[in-house]
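Q: I'm writing up a methods section and want to include an example of the input and output format. Could you take the sequence below and give the corresponding predicted structure tokens, formatted cleanly so I can copy it straight into the document?
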Amino acid sequence: MYEWLKALHVIAVIAWMAGMLYLPRLFVYHCEAPVGSKQSETFKVMEQRLLKVIINPAMIVTWVVGLYLAWAGRWYGAGWFHVKFVLVVLMSAVHGYYASRVRDFALDRNTRSQKLYRVINEIPTFLMIGIVIMVIVKPF
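A: Here is the clean output for your methods example:
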């Protein structure tokens, strides 16, 4: 059962990361759309659906299954796991920030620039690289 749950965990992580990499790109393009335009309203729907249908459920499955795997594998004492855990907490914080931006766009209250969204689009990539290195290499 452990291997099946590990596979589910990896699938959930892939879905979560796909959404976390795509959502800020939507923000970049949404910034260009005039408030109240058909294009802006379309971006609102896309952002909401991506967050609620893919990103949120994937994050929940990632956390629930990941915590079980850590417990079942007795990884809680490993140094690499501590670093991975911190990086996943940071990824979850970025997720929360993105969710707040979705709310701002939905209410036509975005005050941030395309440039910010282009920069924050890279944060999940760097966190993911660190997480993968911790899990695969287990450097300590």
